[in-house]
Amino acid sequence: MSNVLVVFRDPLWAQALDTSIAPPGFEFSTDRRRLADASAVVFHIPAWMRHWASDRKGLGWLLRGAKRRGQLWVAWSMECEEHYPLLRDAEFMRHFDITMTYRLDADVPATYITDDGFRTPPQAKLAEPLVAAFVSSRTDRSDRARYFRELARHLPIASFGALLRNRSLPRDEGRATKLDTIGQYKFTLAFENARAQDYVTEKFFEPLTAGSVPVYLGAPNVDDMAPGEHCFVNAAEFPDPKRLAEYLLDVGHDEAAYHEYLAWKEQPYRASFQRLLALNQPHPFVRLCALILARRARA
Fold first, then answer.
1. pTM of the model
2. 65 backbone dihedrals φ, ψ, rounded to 5°
3. What DSSP string describes 4-44?
4. Domain check: are 204 and 250 in the same one?
5. pLDDT digits (tens, 9 = 90+) for 55-65
6. What is the pLDDT of residues 138-151, one digit of tens each?
7. What is the pLDDT of residue 98?
8. Is 115 inside a domain boundary?
9. Looking at the domain assignment, is residue 28 inside a domain?
10. Which domain holds residue 194?
11. Are 104 and 162 part of one and the same domain?
12. CA distances (Å), 14 to each of 9, 17, 30, in order?
């Protein structure tokens, strides 16, 4: 019996596909010459924005009968729908049978949720400044650049990113260096580049891993993603950056109040967070394959 072929038509930002993730009985491929033979075709939706911009009604060959009879089409994206409105465009999305996105209501949720290193004890903190930031991308639908600049008027921030940079890294070995650096600060700005339901990325989870308290700006339901009680500061709860700065200064100079934000590391995860961890396992591609089998069985 031949394997079920899944063709990933569009790469994830030109990254190589790890075909070893394919579960037994499945084959993953990026060879577009095999599209007609595929049981399922995965489309990385952000790659289609250029088509949407130039051909709003037609979207090229998508509307010209390219789908083989019985084939399943999968809409895949880890990017926010605020940046890629195709994800909420009903006319476009009706072409797909399965969604695999960061949204919790997707057919296959592919979220950023993790508990990687959460139990690692926090390291000693620098006395000043209290806050670290790694903000570089100019992509900004959350108004984070303006908020950052206003916040920086009211308290010192060690900025290692392109925005308001005033610190540099003596060495940069990627994520490990970033985690080690922010772990030295009491707070870390965790500002998403867009504000949308369920769009909670590594910006929130990395400070939790490093033992720094995230100061979060982004998804309205971020509390649903928190592993413990009282483990982050939500900018949305403050009327303006000045009031947030005053709060961070107060808590940052009150050791007892600050350590309340780290107590979650020694407590059981919230039941809601444990459910989200379970929802995110195993790998999204493995869960996608299980759903493909179920859909094929019903056909």
1. 0.93
2. 70, 35
3. EEEEE-S-STTPPP-GGGPPTTEEEE--GGGGGG-SEEEEE
4. yes
5. 555 555 555 56
6. 999 999 999 999 99
7. 98
8. no
9. yes
10. 131-275
11. no
12. 11, 9, 11
